[in-house]
Amino acid sequence: MRTVLLAAFAVCLIVGGSAAGVFASDEKAASAAKIGVVDMQTIASQSAPAEAAKKQMDEKFGKERESLEKQGEALKKKAESLKNPKISEEKKLEFIRAKQDLDQKTRNFFRKVEQDEVKLRQDMVTLVFQASYEVARAKGFNFVVDVMAGGVLYADQAMDLTQDVLAEVNRLYKEKDAKKDEKKETKKDEKKGGGKK
To answer: Which residues contact 181 (CB under 8 A, 6 or more apart)?
Structure first.
């Protein structure tokens, strides 16, 4: 019986020692893990591609948005005049038709805007992921989380990669933009050269 207890005790020591080794190696791995945080809101509002996307949307949809806003203001003024009890039913029906027409135009406008925004957001996300990967790899980080979406309540300033990722997003965007311009120039040159032959 005593031998069995000694053997059991020896097994516990061996297992306990190897378990302590496993926990120690897990602690080393955990302490070696380097986690970075990025404020995506800053990237989305201050980066060159975000500013270019805003400008592009304003150029493409600004006039139509202003026109819809003016039509809405005009309808508000008409609605005030309809409070007069002497206004005919025909004028009231005319107002209702105009309001329905404006509502339809507004819905169509928002649909077009949303389609373009989805494409721009996808392009932005691709750039941010690529930039985050490049910065994390260059600085030796194992994980990068969005400070806003990840539920991060506190992060040491040394973990904040926002400005690095912002700079990398801008660099990648300029590089991508330069390649687009280069392709356009090449196509123009090919057209010019093709016309001379």
So the answer is: none
- Give me the domains of the chain, ranges plus CATH numbers: 35-46+60-196 (3.30.910.20)
Q: 40 with 160: CB under 8 angstroms?
A: no
- Asked if residues 48 and 170 have their Cβ atoms less than 8 Å apart, the reply is yes
pTM: 0.63
**CA-to-CA distance for 95 and 82, rounded, in angstroms?**
9
Question: Helices marked H in 33-148 — which ranges?
Answer: 40-46, 48-81, 89-139
Nearest to 46 by CA among 147, 166, 175, 161: 166
Q: What is the tens place of the pLDDT at every residue in 73-93? A: 998 888 887 777 777 788 888
DSSP H or E segment with residue 190: helix 162-196
